[in-house]
């Protein structure tokens, strides 16, 4: 009888553990995106590191978060990559070209983390990366919607979504750093 109880408990704990670490329905690493310089940004290169995806804009009230994103990237770059994804969908706050965006970020904030082409993070033309980040049917964890610029999505070393952080969460917040 005691052995049966132990077996049942072990099975239950195993089930609960697996429920918390659901594998994504689709692999994040198979998705394609163009870097801001025009070459492909290969997400497979970042397997083994956490990835923080952030939709960014140059003329937003949260634009000063570039400083925190750069600090986060510099401090944790051995285990984290920050990827900035310019988006003009919220208040038309990212009107620039790729060259203008890249120049603005480097000149004003010293950004050297990877940046991508300008994309759409919601709606009919939502980029596949944001489809993955926002749809439980693809990421295996949760549904969400992008509310504004500088919303952050953290993915673990194996390409599993960890959590989403709204714009008001600063990059160096303990909500984020405790997960690194």
TrEMBL record:
Q: Does the keyword Signal apply?
A: yes
Which CDD domains does UniProt cross-reference here?
A: GSH_Peroxidase
Which GO molecular function annotation, any one, does this entry have? peroxidase activity
**Which Gene3D superfamilies does this UniProt record tie to the protein?**
Glutaredoxin (3.40.30.10)
What is the top-level taxon of the source organism? Bacteria
The protein's organism comes out as: Tenacibaculum aiptasiae
Q: Which GO terms describe its biological process?
A: response to oxidative stress
Q: Name one Pfam family in it.
A: GSHPx
Q: Where is the active site?
A: 60
Family indicated by similarity: Belongs to the glutathione peroxidase family.
Which segment of the chain is annotated as a signal peptide? 1-19
**Name of the molecule in the record:** Glutathione peroxidase
Q: Which UniProt keywords apply?
A: Oxidoreductase, Peroxidase, Signal
Q: Does the keyword Signal apply?
A: yes
The family database entries (InterPro entries) matched by this protein are listed as: Glutathione_peroxidase (IPR000889), GPX_AS (IPR029759), Thioredoxin-like_sf (IPR036249)
């Amino acid at each position: 009888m005691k052995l049966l109880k132990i077996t049942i408990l072990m099975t239950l704990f195993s089930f609960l553990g697996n429920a918390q670490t659901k594998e994504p329905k689709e692999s994040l690493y198979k998705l394609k995106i163009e870097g801001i310089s025009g070459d492909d940004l290969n997400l497979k290169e970042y397997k083994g590191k956490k990835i923080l995806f952030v939709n960014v804009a140059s003329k937003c009230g949260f634009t000063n978060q570039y400083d925190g994103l750069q600090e986060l990237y510099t401090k944790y770059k051995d285990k984290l990559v920050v990827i900035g994804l310019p988006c003009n969908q919220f208040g038309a706050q990212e009107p620039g070209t790729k060259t203008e965006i890249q120049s603005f970020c480097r000149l004003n904030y010293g950004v050297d983390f990877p940046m991508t082409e300008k994309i759409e993070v919601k709606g009919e033309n939502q980029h596949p990366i944001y489809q993955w980040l926002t749809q439980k049917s693809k990421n295996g964890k949760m549904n969400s919607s992008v509310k504004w610029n500088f919303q952050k999505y953290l993915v673990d070393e194996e390409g599993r979504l960890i959590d989403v952080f709204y714009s008001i969460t600063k990059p160096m917040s303990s909500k984020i750093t405790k997960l690194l």
